[in-house]
Write a structure and sequence with these properties.
The complex is a heterodimer of chains A (309) and B (301). By secondary structure, chain A is mostly helical. Helix content of chain A is 76%, strand content 0%. Chain A contains 11 helices and no strands. The longest helix of chain A is centred in the C-terminal third of the chain and has 38 residues, at 218-255. Helix content of chain B is 71%, strand content 0%. The longest helix of chain B has 37 residues, at 88-124. Classes of the chains: A mainly alpha (309), B mainly alpha (301).
């Protein structure tokens, strides 16, 4: 177990290192990178100030080294547009995204597992086909478009829900409902499909036949013997879903004016705020890698078969 | 593998006592799956309409008519006009062309990039494998749109860049699948025989290994078009995709939220078009997976 942990930790660190290399060099070597901020009409002082602030007079390898050693100490530089430290901008927004993603995950797992089990138990029935169609549509509809249609229905016509922003207190759920539903379209279909196939596999196992043979009631067989085992692989899906949810948050947060990390990266990209772009991308990826690491540990704890990696 | 040999021999020398496999070729197997068959027909029709339609409906999709904005459905403008008085039908047709072309080109680049990386990593192993697969995993850890936004910011927004950025942010899945398949096939006797008979690595890889992986690549490509179309539309919504006045189904939705109070209908058609095309490609991909799955063929016999 300890070996497995150390091994996984090393892999995560190497992965994180590669991510910083890819993002840093993509930003700094592309034609539209920080050097392009030097406009033709910039004065000598402006040029000097920018060169000074971005360290543009140094070779890119040196700049990367400086960035990396600062980043390891938790310093991602200052935002070029607001002048505040990147870390501060990120920590202001992060809780909102975590809240959105967490509710989405809870909703998707709750609903997805139920629908997946129904789909598997009533295989090839009308409900199986409808659930299948439902998840196919969920995977195919552009989420921002569905969001706009929901806003039209619930905010414009029925006027039940606010079209954007965050609320607090008892009004909070109204602001959360549509964003959570929309972000769920990236997670729900995957969980349904995964639960279904996992469940189908478990149901064909011998211990399920044994349970039936000893006379256990059908619902006990399904919900006690089968589901417990079918859910184990579903845990591993969470690791896959985290980066997708955070990516989907870019769209969802933009449509609903939700002040999270997704909005922040859009603002940073539009303002060509390279320090912020770099910081946000790396921090979000760090979250992905850490959660994947945790999911792996939980998985190996729950499933005795994967202990000896 | 031996099963392909048997099939080839069977085609040359039919043995009368053996019942003919019911599902003979991929096409008839696709139509065994009703949803995939319907999707294929729908896609063919949709492509015909979008690519041939502008020959018959010749209104310029970029022609602005300030006197006739947001008009309802009339004979002159069967689907009305948008906020600048441009003909919506014409924009749907021309926009569809661009959207489908972008989806297709992005898929081709994605498949080539992901396929080569996966195949090289799987076939050559050792250092190539270590480096390429670590890069693949690192790219997968960065949430998709974050990477796409970073890339579009520094690379610009031309159609070619949009295609390249979509490919750059979505090749990893194919790379992993092709990597796994290549690992599986390179241990087979016919590959070992090819190496033993002195064929170069490239010849063995491209002549013997890649053909075995082709079914997997075809399925991934079909699903890849669907993914690319969705990504293009989302990038356009954020204002970072192909820029107006050129119409795409994605950028026609760019202002949909803004006009939701005055002209909600403007946002409906492009969204529905994207949904149906993507849905059809997804169903076709699932159908192809079953149709090309060797296990499926055996079951039919």
């Amino acid at each position: 177990m300890l070996n497995f942990l150390i091994n996984r930790l090393w892999q995560s660190i190497i992965l994180m290192f590669i991510v910083t290399v890819i993002t840093f060099f993509l930003i700094n070597l592309a034609p539209g990178g920080p050097a392009s901020l030097m406009r033709m009409d910039a004065t000598a002082e402006e040029r000097a100030a920018l060169t000074e602030r971005m360290g543009l007079d140094k070779p890119v390898m040196v700049r990367y080294g400086v960035w990396l050693s600062d980043a390891i100490q938790g310093d991602f530089g200052d935002s070029l547009t607001s002048g505040q430290p990147v870390v501060k901008r990120v920590t202001e927004r992060l809780p909102n995204t975590i809240e959105l993603t967490l509710y989405t995950l809870i909703f998707s797992i709750g609903v997805g597992v139920v629908l997946g089990v129904i789909s598997a138990v009533k295989r090839n029935s009308a409900s199986d086909y409808s659930i299948n169609l439902f998840s196919a549509i969920g995977l195919s509809v552009p989420s921002f478009w569905l969001a706009i249609m929901l806003i039209y229905l619930f905010s414009v016509i029925l006027q039940w829900l606010p079209s954007s922003g965050v609320g607090d207190g008892t009004e909070k759920w109204k602001y959360l409902l549509m964003p959570v539903l929309i972000l769920s379209t990236t997670a729900l279909p995957t969980i349904i499909r995964f639960t279904r196939s996992s469940m189908l596999e478990v149901v064909s196992q011998n211990y399920i036949r044994t349970a039936r043979a000893k006379g256990a009631k059908e619902w006990v067989v399904i919900y006690w013997h089968a589901l417990r085992n079918a859910l184990i692989p579903v845990i591993s899906v969470i690791g896959v879903l985290i980066p997708r949810l955070l990516g989907g948050a870019v769209i969802t947060e933009s449509v609903f004016g939700w002040p999270g990390m997704g909005r922040l990266i859009v603002e940073a990209a539009q303002g060509r705020d390279y320090n912020l772009v770099m910081g946000v991308t790396v921090i979000v990826t760090l979250i992905v890698i850490v959660t994947n690491f945790l999911v792996d540990i939980v998985y190996s704890k729950i499933d005795p078969r994967v202990k000896n990696f | 593998m031996s099963s392909t040999r048997v099939e080839e021999a069977g085609a040359v020398l039919p043995v009368p006592t053996i019942v003919k496999p019911k599902r003979r070729n991929v096409f008839s197997r696709i139509f065994q799956n009703k949803i995939a068959g319907v999707s294929l027909i729908f896609l063919v029709l949709a492509h015909l309409v979008v690519f041939l339609g502008p020959l018959f409906w010749t209104i310029n999709p970029e022609k602005i008519d300030p006197a006739n904005t947001l008009s309802s459905w009339t004979a002159a403008h069967p689907l009305g006009t948008d906020d600048l008085g441009r003909d919506v039908l014409s924009r749907m047709l021309h926009g569809g062309r661009i959207t489908l072309l972008v989806g297709f080109s992005a898929m081709v680049v994605t498949v080539i990039l992901g396929g080569l990386i996966g195949a090289f990593a799987g076939y050559f192993g050792k250092l190539a494998e270590a480096i390429l697969m670590r890069i693949t995993e690192a790219m997968m850890a960065i949430p998709g749109f974050f990477l796409a936004l970073v890339a579009l910011t520094v690379l610009g927004k031309s159609p070619v860049m949009v295609v390249l950025v979509i490919a750059f942010t979505s090749w990893m899945e194919i790379a992993r699948v092709v990597y796994g398949e290549t690992l599986k096939w390179k241990e087979q006797e016919f590959v070992v025989a090819s190496i033993a008979s002195g064929a170069s690595s490239f010849r063995t890889l491209f002549g013997h290994v890649i053909p075995q992986v082709t079914p997997t690549i075809i399925v991934a490509s079909t699903l890849g078009i669907a993914g690319a179309i969705l990504t293009e539309s989302a990038i356009s919504y954020l204002g970072l995709g192909i820029q107006p006045p050129t119409a795409t189904w994605g950028n026609m939705l760019q202002n949909a939220q803004q006009f939701i109070w005055t002209a909600p209908i403007l946002g409906v058609l492009p969204g529905l078009a994207i949904t149906f095309i993507v849905l059809a490609y997804n169903f076709l991909g699932d159908g192809l997976r079953d149709a090309l799955d060797p296990r499926h063929i055996k079951k039919a016999k």
